[in-house]
Amino acid sequence: MGRPKPITFKSHKMKPEEKLTSVEMGKLWATFMGNSMAKCILTYFLHHVEDKEIKALLQKALHLSEEFLGTIEDIFTKDEFPIPQGFSEKDINLGAPRLFQDEFYVHYLKYTSKAGMSIYNVAVPLVYRKDVKEFFTHCMKETMSLIDQTKEMLMKKGLIIKPPLIPTPEKVEFVHKDFLNGFFGHVRPMHALEIAHFYDNIENNVTSKALILAFAQVVKDEQIRKLFERGKTFTTTDIENYMQKLHDENLPSPAFLDHLVTTSAFSPFSDRLMLYHKMDMFMMKIRSFGNSVAVNGRRDIGQVYTKSLMKIYLFVEDATKIMIEKGWMEQPPQAVKRGK
Q: What Gene3D superfamilies does its record include (predicted)?
């Protein structure tokens, strides 16, 4: 798998004086922060990876992160927008022992690629400046390609099962009044969209749980370690609840990945990077659950997601408070303060 050719975008605008909109600033800023973090993590992964195919996949992901960062820096520089600090070589320790087995890296790439897509697919319909629109379109295209290669690798190496199979409908039908039932009366089987989101949430959460397990194992700050332990505990409960819903329908679910975390107690990352990463991953869960609730019809399933959302929201809030207290949280672009 060769190094992808870098793509350059001219900062041409629809009008010479055209400025970045709030959406363009926000999405470029978020993309920069995420990819500066990804660059650190992927550099560490590449330091230990042994499987040649997985190494090539990691190299592609790292090259994309570096390319995305370079393009954003160019846009920001031309617009006299301050380059975010993000994360750097100061946030990684390449001398730390291996913390994950090679197989985990493939699951991680799929999870974080989906997180990137959640930024890009919201940005594309909302950005207007030509260079920014072309950039996010390119991000989507390249990230989709990376996801395809990651899925092929997962299947080739037998690291994941495909989503559950259900019967093809024999005819078009309309729902009955018991469609919303979940606790009482006749409870219908889950429909395809409900199954799809349970599968997706389990897949995301088993990767998230393995990562927070590893971070809790190596983090230096005791307050952050306790927060990670709390996140690990309720993530385990959530996964078990989602799995049970699929098992109740006699459907399979993705497996835990905890065995892919080593016993190393030496941290390869700064506490700041790990806390920001988990805060970001849990915020992605909130977005994912929002999509899940939107297509759900059964009250019992809605309750499962509601309970999860509250615990995740409180985790993100507490993580944010720690980031602020320690002076670690960069300020996203904001509107002008007017009046009192």
A: 1.20.1260.10
Annotated domain spans of the chain = 22-156, 186-325
User: How confident is the model over 321-339, as pLDDT tens digits?
Assistant: 999 999 999 998 888 777 6
**Amino acid of residue 233:** T
Work out the number of other CB atoms within 10 angstroms of the CB of residue 34: 22
Find out whether 286 and 316 touch, Cβ atoms under 8 Å: yes
22-156: CATH architecture: Up-down Bundle (1.20)
Is the distance from CB of 265 to CB of 217 less than 8 angstroms?
yes
Q: Helix 130-156 crosses helix 102-126 at what angle (to 10 degrees)?
A: 150
CA distance 273 to 330: 12
- d(CA 74, CA 81) in angstroms, rounded, equals 10
- Helix 299-325 and helix 222-248, axial crossing angle in degrees, nearest 10: 170
**Contact (CB, 8 A) for 248 and 197:** no
Tell me the C-alpha distance between 86 and 32, whole Å: 7
Find residue 100's DSSP bridge partners. Answer: 261
231-268 pLDDT tens trace: 999 999 999 999 999 999 999 999 999 999 999 999 99
Structural tokens at position 256: 């835990």
Angle at 106 between CA 101 and CA 110, to 5 degrees: 140
Tokens at 239, concatenated: 């996964």
